[in-house]
Amino acid sequence: QVQLVESGGGLVQAGGSLRLSCAASGRTFSTTAMGWFRQTPGKEREFVAAISLSTTNTGYGDSVKGRFTISRDKAKYTVYLQMNSLKPEDTAVYYCAARNGGSAYSYSQLSREYNSWGQGTQVTISS
Which of 11-37 are b and which e, b meaning 16 or more Cβ less than 10 Å from the residue's Cβ? Predict the structure, then answer.
């Protein structure tokens, strides 16, 4: 079992920046891809970004491309999400996710392919 703990959420004005962190612990040796998803009340969980274990491959949801950057510190078992040019529509609970097994060079945009989830961190963008 992998435990994930997110941090870095908060309240910022539109146009501002936030950096989310997700620290993994436990059976991290089997973790390959890691990703970020977000969810607002009444909506399905939305893919935000993901990164492969190799860190050579990354993917982003259409709504965040060019504004968000995902990165990974393998030595610290930590993944980051740098969020710039934030918009009110970015307001959501952001969840970190980890996938066990699979290729070290791939990631997924599908939430069902991730095995472990963090508790979520609230991000609120004011207009």
Answer: ebeeeeebebbbbbeeebeebbbbbbb
